[in-house]
Description:
Blueprint: H1 2-9, H2 18-23, H3 26-42, H4 61-75, H5 81-103, H6 111-130, H7 136-145, E1 155-163, H8 165-168, H9 172-182, H10 191-196, E2 205-209, H11 211-218, H12 220-227, E3 234-239, E4 244-253, H13 260-288
Amino acid sequence: MAEAGARGALPATRGAPPMRGLWREPLLHFVLIGAVLFGLYALVPGGQSSTPAAREIRLSVAEIDQLIVLYQAQWKRPPTPQELRQLVENKVQQEVLYREALAMGLDKDDEIVKRRMAQKMQFLAEDVAAAREPSRDELQRWFDAHPALFAQPPRLGFRHLYFSPDRRGARAKDDAQSALARLAGQPEDAALATTLADPFMFQDYYRDRSPEFLAKEFGPGFAHAASTLTPGAWQGPVESGFGWHLVYIDTAIPGRVPSFDEVEPEVKRAWLAEQKAQASQKAYQAMRERYSVLLPAPPERPASAPR
C-alpha cells in the first residue's frame, strides 16, 4: 500500500517512459537520502556523535541531493541506495584527505593551490558584479558608447580563377593578364573561364566572406585588393600567398553598426564582462593596498661589465 501511495503521488509524464519521469521526482531523492542517512546513523550508537566538533564532517541534505543530481546527469538514472552510499563515502573521503593535507601543511608553497585559491577569489569578485541585472536603458547607453564593439565588417561574395606559379613559373602573372583580356565582358559563370585557369586546392567560389577570413585564407594583400574591386566584372590579376588570381565580385555588403535591438543579448554579455573585469580589478586593488611588496635588490654588475 505504501508503494502504491508513493506511486500515485508522482505526476504522470505524457509521452515519457514511466521510469524516466520517476527519476526527475524530488520525492525519489528524499527516499534515497533517507535510506542512506538511515544506514549511516545505524553505524553511530544512538544516532549521536561524541566526536569533537573540529573533527566532525557534516553533510547536509542539500549536499547529498546534489550528489544525486550530478550522478543522474551523468548516468541518466538515479543512483541505487548502495551507489548513493558510495557517493557519500567518496565525498567523506575527499573531505578527510583535504583536512589531513591541511594539517600536514601540504597547501603551503604549492603553486597549484595558490593559483586555484587566487582564481576563486577572482570569481567571488566577479560574482558580485554579475549579481546586478542591468536595465534596458542602461544597456542602450552602454551600446551607444561602444558601437565599435558590435560593428559588422564588410562581406564579399566572389569567384576566382587561379594561376599557379608551381605550374607556370614566372609566366603565371602574364598568363592571368592574358586570360583577363579574353574574359572581358564575360559573365561570372562563363564556360571559357574554367578552361583558362589551374585547379585550386580550396574553393573556386566564396560566399559572404569577411576581410579577416580572406586575410587568413589568401593573405592580407589579397584581402585588401579584393575589397577595392568593383562588382560585376572579371578583374585582376590579384596576388595571394598561393599565386595569382582573376576575381569576379558578385556581392559586396558594406560594413555597418547594427541597431541595439538586433544585438541586445550580445550587448548584455559584453556589459557583464566589463562589469566583472572592473569588479575584479577594484577588489584586487583594495586587497593590494593592504600589502607591502619587498623585492630583492638588483644584482651588482661585475666591475668589467660595460656600462
